[in-house]
Specification:
The chain has helices spanning about 1-30, 160-170, and strands spanning about 45-50, 60-65, 70-80, 90-95, 95-100, 105, 120, 125-130, 140-150. The chain is an alpha+beta fold and about 170 residues long.
């Protein structure tokens, strides 16, 4: 008779410990929300041109956003004169730019975003000179337009032409 009584008391004691432990755990559990902070990418670039003639015109791309970017650009000649053709102009492209197979020139570095100090960083000039073919009529009116695009550069990656082109293809 003694063994069943001890078993019963031990069972009741074990049940009481389990109930008290789970009640204390329930009452002391904190329901504190986790805080996840995200910062969206900010891609924003602009062309900055200086000079107004073919001899002294320079074009750089400024990263005015906070995110690092890949940059690509191309030069377009526009004219209302049918005798003016793009192949009449030869550009001396800067050494920090490389030509892709898609007609764009790619800046050979990741261009960092605006820092905490507010400093805007820019590329080196896309081209350093323009040579105009002698067949362009002296009365021709034309404009040299620079078109640029930028896309987010994944953090921690260095520039390669393949990575930059893949990023632009993914952008669509």
């Amino acid at each position: 008779m003694r063994k069943p009584l001890i078993k019963t008391l031990l069972s009741v004691l074990l049940l009481a410990v389990a109930l008290v432990g789970s009640t204390v755990a329930y009452l002391t559990a904190a329901d504190t929300p986790a805080t996840n902070t995200f910062r969206l990418a900010q891609v924003s670039t602009e062309i900055e041109e200086t000079g107004n003639t073919s001899e002294n015109k320079l074009a750089v791309v400024e990263n005015t956003g906070k995110s690092p970017v890949y940059v690509r650009a191309k030069v377009l000649i526009s004219s209302g004169d049918a005798s003016v053709k793009e192949d009449m102009f030869q550009f001396t492209y800067g050494s920090d730019w490389e030509e892709g197979e898609d007609g764009f020139y790619y800046y050979k570095q990741v261009l960092p975003g605006v820092g905490e100090d507010g400093k805007i960083l820019e590329t080196t000039p896309l081209f350093t000179g323009i040579e105009v073919d002698g067949n362009v009529p002296s009365t021709a009116v034309f404009s040299v337009d620079v078109y640029q695009e930028s896309v987010l550069a994944p953090g921690g990656e260095s520039y390669t032409l393949e990575r930059a082109q893949a990023a632009f293809r993914a952008k669509g």
